[in-house]
Amino acid sequence: MKTIISRDNAQYKELVKLAGSSQARRKSGRTLLDGVHLCQAYLQLRGLPEQCIVSETALHNPEVMEIVGQLEAQHAHVLGLPDALYNAVSQVEHGVGVMFMIETPERTVTEPLAVSAVLLDNVQDPGNVGSILRSAAAAGITQVYCSAGSAFCWSPKVLRAAMGAHFVLDIFENVDLAQLVAASKVTSLATSGYATQRLYDVDLRQPVAWLFGHEGQGVADDLLSMATHQVVIPHLGQVESLNVAACAAVCFFEQVRQNQG
């Protein structure tokens, strides 16, 4: 294990930049997974990280030491930091003190949609995006396509909200969703508060491209017009609409229900 004790160390400065800047994460093609759960999920589902970073205090934590031992047995890079330096990098309050630096996958769309997938049109809140990824993974959906205006899927907030879902999904970013829908081989379904068809009246026992839009404005008009179905989720009570992440979860598990019925 290598140890850094100076804030002026070039490697440490890169870590600080990576932790605090979305632009730095996109430019370097790397991100940080903060916390035992995300690190364990990555090890189990994707393999070794580029680097493991641990705080001095975390070296007394059995779960962290198990991770470190596993990595060192496979000659992976482990970096130790004094608590003060580690806490300046970590964005998790009262965290355990372990994070991974990983490469963020860059995927290019090469084939038309042929299986159920999630299409995010300008969904900007990281918590919503992470929750949608988590629900999609739980419902057995494996492909997610994000427009350029959507939150960066590999940001720390999205990663924390998704709770490891990233590692069982194929995530495509900066996608031209109109082009994707136009070439799709599956039914496309867009949610809209103005739709007259109910979600529960659509046959979902087939692959569906689920299209969800911006938190305030919804799915863009051009994409709405291209969708095979526009549907609404009926709700009771004096609220205008469901949160987009809640809406997505209802849709995914209605499809699960129909396929298991």
How would you describe what is shown here?
- This protein is an alpha/beta fold and 261 residues long.
- Helix content is 37%, strand content 20%.
- It has 10 helices and 12 strands.
- The strands form 2 sheets. Strands 8-7-6-11-9-12-10 form a 7-stranded parallel sheet. Strands 1-4-3-5-2 form a 5-stranded mixed sheet.
- α1 crosses α2.
- It is elongated, with a radius of gyration of 20 Å.
- The protein starts with a strand and ends with a helix.
- The mean pLDDT is 95.
List strands and helices in order, with pairings.
Layout: E1 2-3, H1 10-20, H2 22-28, E2 30-34, H3 36-45, E3 51-55, H4 62-73, E4 78-81, H5 83-89, E5 98-103, E6 117-121, H6 126-138, E7 143-146, H7 156-162, E8 170-172, H8 177-183, E9 187-191, E10 197-198, E11 208-213, H9 221-226, E12 229-232, H10 244-260
Parallel strand pairs: 1-4, 3-4, 6-7, 6-11, 7-8, 9-11, 9-12, 10-12
Antiparallel strand pairs: 2-5, 3-5
Helix pairs in contact: 1-2, 6-7, 6-10
